[in-house]
Each structure stands twice: as C-alpha cells, then as structure tokens.
Amino acid sequence: MKFMITCKQASQIISQSLDNPLSWSDRMKLKFHLFICDACTRFNRQLHLISNALKSMRSDTENDSTIQLTSEAKIRILNNIQAKNH
Amino acid sequence: MSNVNDWLNEHGDYLYRFALARLRDPHQAEDAVQETMLAAIKSNNFEGDSSARTWLTGILKHKIIDLQRKQIREQPVSDLIDFDASDTSMDDFFDVKGHWLDKPQTLDMPENALEQKQFLNILSSCMDKLPKKLAAIFTMRDVQETENETICKELDITATNAWVMLYRARMGLRKCLEINWNIG
Fold first, then answer.
1. Residue-number span of the structural domain to which B38 is assigned
2. CA distance B128 to B23
3. How many whole angstroms separate alpha carbon B100 and alpha carbon B102?
4. What pLDDT digit, counting tens, does each position of B96-128 carry?
C-alpha cells in the first residue's frame, strides 16, 4: 500500500518537517503513520521538545545579565586588536 | 582604538551573550566579539541613524557564521562527502524492516525549575558529544533558526547533505537525552 511507511521513513520525514514544509503526500503519509504508531508520535514530540528547549536555552543566555565579558577578556581583545590592526 | 574601548564597554557584554547563546563556547564567543571589533574599526560604513549596537550585532552575525563554517571545514573532507541519503549507518536505530530497535520513550520538559535546569544541562552535554560538524550545522538550524537554504549556501553543501546531517544530529541527540534523562 502506497500510504504505508516504515518507522525509519517516518523518522526521516519528521526531521525534515522541522526544516521545510512537507509535500502533500509526505504530510498525508506521516499523518497516517502517526495515527497508528505511538513510538513515532513520541519521537515527533521529542524532536519538538529538543528544538524548543534549545531556543529557550538561547534566550536564557541572551538575557542573563550575569554573563559578561570579564575585564581580562576586554584587555585581551584590545591587545589582540592592537596587534592585528597594524 | 578609543572607539573599540567605548564599544566594548557599552555593548561588549551584550555582544558576548549574543555570541555565546549561538556558539555555546566561551572562547569562540570571545573570538567572535574580537573579530567583530576588528571588522568594525576597519569598515567605515557605520550609519549614524542606526544604533551602534544594531550595527555591531549585524557584523557579529557574520562572524558567528564564519566561525561555524570554519568548524565544519576543518573536518576531514571525506567525512563530508560520505554523506549520502542511502547511507546505512542509521540502521543502528532500526531493524531491516524499518522498525525501531528501541522505541522512543516519553520525554517531557520537567515542570520544576531545578529539574528543568538539569534537563537543559543534560541536553547541553549531549550537544557537546555530537561530532563537531553535526553540532555546528544543528546549532545553525535549531539554535539560530537559520533557513536551510542559507545553511547550504554558507557551508557550500547540498540540500541532501544538510538534511542527512540534521537528521543524524537529531537522532543522536534524542538518544543521548533518553539515556541520560530517564525519569518517570
């Protein structure tokens, strides 16, 4: 049956769905597969969880005012620039 | 040079956090800030009507991509060419019929702040365990939310290479997370 895909194929389509819009036929195949497969449904959730967690890690770092360039780092940068800029 | 001093004092911490959030490595983040300063004093296209911070951040974004490109290029060329959609090394996860060898388990973000932090720490160490080039491309995609097309262009790889690398990174990462985060 054309609509049936394996878990391996489903996992590949799920990964692709995070990067690009799926074709209509991939979307239908995946929808059908997820309907009958708990393991791939969990896999799908795992990938979304990871992706969201990484984004929240990014904004945590961006907004963490305790993370600063140390004065040593600033001096290092200034010295390196002076050396390179001649 | 006095410009650099001012920039570092006013925007240095911001730029450093911006870089660290994307590169996840303090040394690389410092390098990126340094290269940004260097590029900034060499260029004179600072437009008075945009803020210095916006201008510097624009330069920094390019420097971050440069560093990631370097990270990927430094890998042996053969490793990159090796990527092929029909490659079978993913069979570690599936049997010959395409069934999961180990079915994915339920993985939830914990509610409690402390456990959440632990979870993110584990995720972070799993990222560090990925092969460097996979980590770099995956970071570009999932942390920086770079468009696929841009990734392919910047790294000079095909769309197929990109998706195979992203797929491998995700498969490795979720497995690592599952192994190291086994509660509930």
1. 2-73
2. 11
3. 5
4. 999 999 999 888 888 888 888 899 999 999 998
Q: Does B145 contact A55 at a Cβ distance shorter than 8 Å? A: yes
Give chain A's domain count.
Answer: 1
Structural domains counted in chain B: 2
The helix (run of H) or strand (run of E) holding residue B159 is helix B159-180
H helix runs in B24-158, sequence order: 26-42, 52-73, 77-81, 113-129, 132-138, 148-155
Closest alpha carbon to B103 in A18, A46, A52: A46
Contact B138, B170 (CB under 8 A): yes
Taking the C-alpha atoms of residue B80 and residue B112, their distance in angstroms, rounded to an integer, is 41
Domain presence at residue A61: yes
- B179 inside 8 A of chain A by CB: no
ipTM of the complex: 0.88
CB distance A64–B17 less than 8 Å?
Answer: yes
Given this model, what pLDDT does residue B82 score? 46
Which of B47-61, B65-79, B102-116, B126-140 comes out lowest in average pLDDT?
Answer: B65-79
In this structure, the answer to whether residues B69 and B142 fall within a common structural domain is: no
Is some CB atom of chain A closer than 8 A to the CB atom of B176?
Answer: no
The CB density around residue B129, as the number of other CB atoms within 10 Å, is 11
